[in-house]
Amino acid sequence: MLSNQYQISAGDMAANLQKLPIDGNNNNNNNGNNMPTKQPTQPPPNRLAIGWLDLTFYGRSLLSMCRQPKTILNEISGTIDFGTLVALMGPSGAGKSTLLKCINGRTKSGVGKSSTIYLSSSRPIRSCFIVQDVTEHLLMGLTTMQSLVYSSKLKNVDQEGSGGGGRVDHRLNARRMLADLMIGDTADTYVQNCSGGEQKRLAIALELMAINKPNLMCIDEPTSGLDSNAAEIVVQVLKNVSRKHNMAIVTSIHQPNSDVLMLFDQLYVLGKGGLCVYEGPPNQLRDHLSRSEFECTEHQVPIELLLKIASKPDHNLQRLANQTVKSRQSLRNKCLIEGQLAPNGIEPKTPGFNISQTWYLFQRTAAYSFKSQWKAMVGQFVCIVGLSYILTTIYNKNIGQPDGCFALIDNDLSANDGNSSGVTTTVGCDKTVEVLKVEYLLSQNLRFTFFAGLMIQFLLTVGTTLIFATEVKIFINEHKNGWYSTGSYYWAKSIVELPLNLIIALFYVIILYRLSNQIDEQNRFVGYLIVITAGALCSQGLGFTIGIVANTNDKLAIVLSVGTYLTYIMLCGFFAPIDELPESIRWITHGSYVKQTFEMQLFLIYGFDRCPQGLESSILYQNNLRESDKFWRNALILAIHTVSFRLTALLALLSKANTFSLTGFRRSTSSSRTTRTDKLFSETPVQEINNYM
């Protein structure tokens, strides 16, 4: 039970307040003026940080919406105090991660109606969450010092300038944090070269770089994948941090050894069915088992026996849960006296768009991309440029020379020449070898032009999807922990990617256009480059969107990117003429940016008065592109596509950053069993205290 040992009288509270340091360095700093520094005084240690009463969570997947929801957490109660390190334990499937997310406020959809959350009444809660896979927090390619410096810059924007107390020394801030977390010797080591334990501590350090540090830290499995020695170091570091910064730290942990277990101040153990089977200090486990009428011999480890019982949903588990319920009354008292009711739990607080943060993100993204992803970028560049060269060698090098101009004749002359089909044609039915050769080159250039646009767009769509999908996970964790806004990240990322796309498009077009001997006019070449670049930007925007939507599943990301782009290809008019499509779906083809880029490429090669007056381009005629107005219409639609893809990706990122859980729902009907916490919503705080004192 957490509450008994933390009851503080009013006199003790006043005495503790007088003993607290005035500044953040545990000394009195008068600044030479015999005046105390204006620093917020810290509340007494071991005051309530967060408490939950009768917390219930229901889970339901989208495939079983008509079934009875599964109860993951079953009316459990507990508290976490400032300055304590709490271990959240239990067998697999007991709801540890769910409870951790409920405490942090990351999971709200699915919380039962009778659940109540209390937050500290002495100071606002600033929380952060660290997931089990720390690679979702770390940027490979940066050193630990660089990672911490960028974190300090992003987290302390409000502290700089006239309103924030002066400029922050980010490198000094980083060095202090490296020392606090015992990873000072890794300052110049790249993140990917750090050991597993060092990476775990680095992920923790990144969240502690703010001057106003979080006071509630939730960590999912900080010792997973570590040996016993590395695990003990991580837990010891967490305990030091909780003491030094008077911070509440709660971690889910899987069956630690005795030395690691005794480092925790409190244990909160869940059993199958989402029941709480123990809450209290680790050295009182044996007494708890004894009170629950379970024999624990000297040769047995109490926590192992407790977890063994908790893993089987039977009457023994219920006995442990019933014993724990007896402490619920004191938990209520603690919540009502030291906390305040928070109907929505911890509300996420994310900063708005900030130019300084955008600049820092641009610097970090550029450094990370060129140091960590340079192999992927070089590979993408070599692949695209190499394929452009291969494409020019496959086709005849003179495919760009014929202009395809011919003279139209009226139907009367066609009839006189024996053609009664009504199709315009040249006079005479006989074709010379030279004419057949020209028609062959024109046909080849048509295919060449189509595949020229297709290759760069397809590779950018798939490549961007896979690369960006991994980065989105880091963004989501940093954004939900309040580092920066979605807009700051997205525009910084887009600006970093733009030069690389321009370079790829430039080399790609130079090789394609020159080696295929297309018409040598500067305006046409520049226009061709612009069209290819616009198509590439559309593909990148499409890749961004798919990477955001399917960031948790690489296979799904590949299927979506390939399938979506193939759909655009089928609607571009190359395989099936648009005029032959049914009227009901013909308008859909305007949504294919592949169609716009293909038709504009044909215009730039064969249109704009390339044929003398009185002659028509056979390529443009066959593709129904005789009117030059269609070029500018396509240009407008392509520009709209370029912008809309970017905005769609931004909206998808905003939705992803503020998404709700699809595996749960908020219970709208009251429970059939009335609990005393149902009354808490209608009673005043004074009435509540009087009822439970």
Low-confidence stretches: 1-44, 413-428, 660-693
> What is the total domain count?
3
What is the CATH superfamily label of the largest domain?
Answer: P-loop containing nucleotide triphosphate hydrolases
Instruction: Supply the CATH class of the largest domain.
Output: Alpha Beta
CATH architecture of the largest domain: 3-Layer(aba) Sandwich
Which percent range fits the helix content? Answer: 40-55%
The largest pleated sheet is described as: 6 strands, mixed
Q: In words, what does this structure look like?
A:
α13 runs antiparallel to α15 and α20 (593-606) packs antiparallel against α22 (629-657). A six-stranded mixed β-sheet has the order 5-6-7-3-8-9, sandwiched between helices. A four-stranded antiparallel β-sheet has the order 2-1-4-10, sandwiched between helices. The relative contact order is 0.10. The chain folds into three domains: 4-126 and 214-341, P-loop containing nucleotide triphosphate hydrolases (Rossmann fold); 138-213, no CATH class; 388-405 and 446-657, no CATH class. With 693 residues, it is α/β, with parallel strands linked by helices. A hairpin with a 3-residue loop joins β8 and β9 (275-280). It is elongated and about 105 Å long. Helices cover 49% and strands 10% of the residues.
